Structure formats: C-alpha cells, structure tokens
Amino acid sequence: MFAAVPDAFQRLWTPHRLAYIQEGQQPHPDACPFCIAPSMTDEKALIVARGKHAYVLLNLFPYNSGHLLVCPYRHVAMYDEATPEEVAEIGSLTQIAMRTLSATSRCDGFNLGMNQGRIAGAGIAEHLHQHIVPRWNLDSNFFPIIAKTKAIPRLLGEVRQELADAWPV
After folding, report:
1. Catalytic residue among 53, 67, 127, 129
2. Count of other CB atoms within 10 angstroms of residue 37
3. What dotted CATH number matches 31-166?
4. Burial letters for 103-124: b for 16+ Cβ neighbours within 10 Å, e otherwise?
5. CA distances, 96 to each of 17, 92, 130 (Å)
C-alpha cells in the first residue's frame, strides 16, 4: 500500500503501550507481578477468582472497565509451554469470566487475546496471560485520541468486588 491510500484496516494507535514493550521494560524474574500476585490478598492483587492451576485478576492498566487477565500460577512464557491442565483451566476460567462480566456489566462483546513474546506486544512477556476485554456498543470516544485520556468509569476495587461476588463457586 502507498501512503494516503485507504485500505480495509482500522487503526488503534497506542503509543502509551511502548513503555511496556521496549527493551529493558520487562520485570526481573524475581519481580514478576503474575508470580507475586497469588501471594497477596485478593483485594490487594485485584484477584477475582482462583483455580487449581490458574487465576483471574483485573488488569492494573485496563483498556476498558472490567478488563481481566487469566494467568497460570506457574511462571511460563508461551502458550505451547503450558500443561494440558493449565490450558484447560485457562479456557474454563475465561468462559466463566465472560459469563460473569456479561451478567454484571451487560457488555455487548469481548476481545480475547494473548500476546506471545515481546515482539508480539506482551507487556509482561515472560508470564503467560490471556486478556478478556469487555466491549460495549459505542464504548470508544474521543478522549484517548484528543485528550490522551482513557475514561474508566469505575474503580478497580469496586469492579473486583462485584465480579468476585458474582463469580460462581
């Protein structure tokens, strides 16, 4: 394609994410936030639910209110390195998270994804995690583009408590 020639792609420009993917921005292995979080209280770590092999927590830097991450407890970087048990539980927790978010926030859809490796944009490249981003019709606005501000209408602690309370036992 040539400059100024339209194509079929929409663009989401996220220059603020560059700090997470540049050389040297990965935490030291002893300081991995996804390894540390399970040792903290659920409230402090923003953990919504714990399974046997994986757990669910709110993203500290969400794209949308209710943006969740599903992480294995084990420090493993890539999806193909996860055990069958970890893969199954990550999938199961993702389904439960989607149902719980739908019930509590009445979202219209989801973006699900894993960025595998630094080159693919993983903010924490050394610890596998799946994103679950709830989406609403017309949830985009001018704030991120014009004001360089993302509007997140609810506090993380409130959202964590609501989801934890609604999480099936």
Report:
1. 129
2. 20
3. 3.30.428.10
4. ebbebeebeeeebeebeeebbb
5. 28, 6, 14
What's the CA gap between 13 and 5, in Å, rounded? 18
Burial class (CB in 10 A: 0-12, 13-18, 19+), 152: middle
Q: Specify the pTM.
A: 0.77
- The interaxial angle of helices 84-105 and 156-166, nearest 10 deg, is 110
Contact at 8 Å (CB) between 134 and 110?
Answer: yes
The H or E element spanning position 131 is strand 130-135
> Tens digit of pLDDT for each residue in 120-167?
877 788 899 999 999 988 776 555 555 566 667 788 889 999 999 999
Concerning whether 53 is annotated as a catalytic residue, the answer is no
Alpha-carbon span 128 to 72, nearest angstrom? 7
